Amino acid sequence: MLMLKKRYNPDIMWISDDVLTINKRWTHEFVREVIARNAQHPYECLSRVDLVNREILTGLRETGCFRVWYGAESGSQKVLESMRKGTTVDQVREAARITQELGMQAGFFILLGYPDETTSDIRETINFLKETRPDVVGTSVAFPIKGTEFYERVENRIIPNENWSSRNQNKLLFKGKFPRLYYWFAARWLVKEVNVDKMWRMPKRPYMRIVVESAKAVVARAGVALVDAASFWRKHPKKLVPSRRHA
Q1: Residue 118: closest CA among 171, 176, 196, 172
Q2: What are phi and psi for residue 72, nearest 5 degrees?
Q3: Beta bridge partners of 112
Q4: Model confidence at 236, in pLDDT bands (50, 70, 90)?
Q5: pLDDT (tens digit, 9 = 90+) per residue, 123-160?
Q6: What Cα–Cα distance (Å) separates residue 128 from each residue in 7, 46, 137, 141?
Q7: High-pLDDT (> 70) share of the chain, %
Q8: Do 83 and 117 touch, CB atoms closer than 8 A?
Q9: Each residue of 81-107: b (16+ CB within 10 Å) or e?
Q10: Which residues make Cβ contacts (< 8 Å) with residue 17, sequence separation at least 6?
């Protein structure tokens, strides 16, 4: 950090360690060393909501951290338990609150398309984002990585002939509860609706933009509903046949 600061003086740095605060003792040593060497510089990092507290977050802020990204994944506790994430929506809420209270930004990574997720769960996630108001939100569609429990769970549903070297994080790579189009709409529904909520809270509301984004959110939500209904009828074709009444 000190070398980068002196040689390049970048606007910001990104520490890409998956969980910067995974070791509490190391985190405190990191904070002490950065301050002792005057290496503080604006940076963002990733952590877990169950591996931060006010003391640790205060230390990160003092080293220059301006944003902490958390793998919130979902606003539905049911989905988090299905993932075996080991965290709760209450922990996500608390971590975001303390992070913002200390003057840093809270970023959430949201994962769509986990096998047990329903449209109702996505609605819960949207409502949760409106409530917790993270500063930034990143969305992606769940994709299995070899060697993980998730991969083993969906291995027999992996879509063949996919180019994994150029995979897109918003592309479904296994046969999930819904087709790819569903998640294309779902991601847009979530982003648009959360953005509209954020714009309504601005001191000077951009009404024209709110109208446009609200319309896009409605279209995306309708797309989710239509694909959801089409998937249901494909799986239950007999329900399309009207019953016959005998005299």
Answers
A1: 176
A2: -65, -40
A3: 141
A4: low
A5: 999 999 999 999 999 998 887 877 888 888 888 887 76
A6: 42, 20, 12, 18
A7: 89
A8: no
A9: ebbebebebebbbbbbebbbebebbbb
A10: 45, 46
Spatial distance between the Cα atoms of 214 and 81, rounded to a whole number of angstroms: 32
Q: Comparing C-alpha atoms, which of 136, 127, 50 is closest to residue 94?
A: 50
- Residues 223 and 51: their CA atoms lie apart, in Å, by 38
Structural tokens at position 70: 């958390």
Please report, to the nearest 10 degrees, the dihedral formed by the alpha carbons of residues 178, 183, 189, 190 taken in order.
110
Which DSSP letter does residue 210 get? Answer: H
Distance CA 91, CA 195 (A): 23
- Maximum distance among all alpha carbons in the chain? 91
- By CB atoms closer than 10 A (0-12, 13-18, 19+), residue 125 is buried
- 149-160: buried (b, 16+ CB within 10 Å) or exposed (e) per residue? ebeeebeeeeee
54-62 vs 89-101: helix crossing angle, rounded to 10: 40
